[in-house]
Amino acid sequence: xxxxxxxxxxxxxxxxxxxxxxxxxxxxxxxxxxxxxxxxxxxxxxxxxxxxxxxxxxxxxxxxxxxxxxxxxxxxxxxxxxxxxxxxxxxxxxxxxxxxxxxxxxxxxxxxxxxxxxxxxxxxxxxxxxxxxxxxxxxxxxxxxxxxxxxxxxxxxxxxxxxxxxxxxxxxxxxxxxx
Length: 179
Known about the structure:
alpha+beta; Phosphorylase Kinase, domain 1; two-stranded antiparallel ribbon; elongated
């Protein structure tokens, strides 16, 4: 008779553990319903933007927080001071309302390898586009498309999986400032 009690006790213990685990999952772990299951966290980039604008040797480009359409969210931000041969690097990534990726990338390093890296080997096209009086060159790639602007001392790239329309919205929203 002792063997049956052991199996019964084990089953009851497992059931109790299952109930506790389900309770912790349902009530103890926050679930972000607005993220559409993407699991990607939203970041506030204001502090990093201010820091980069003070430290970078070029005017750092970024949309002012809140200037992009509703549903856009910043998901990544980094600034790395100058390091040979890449130069100072600025990165700001977003997901648009359709969960397409858009990034603003800047560097004062060598333009060709920088553009190749951040656009995932997108190729320059013959097409240019004027956005807020500035000339941008379109790049097309298997993974990312991009808009690229080269100026003395800095290359600015708006790239990602989003359409050229979305890339253009970000390029038009950029404000360049030196801290």
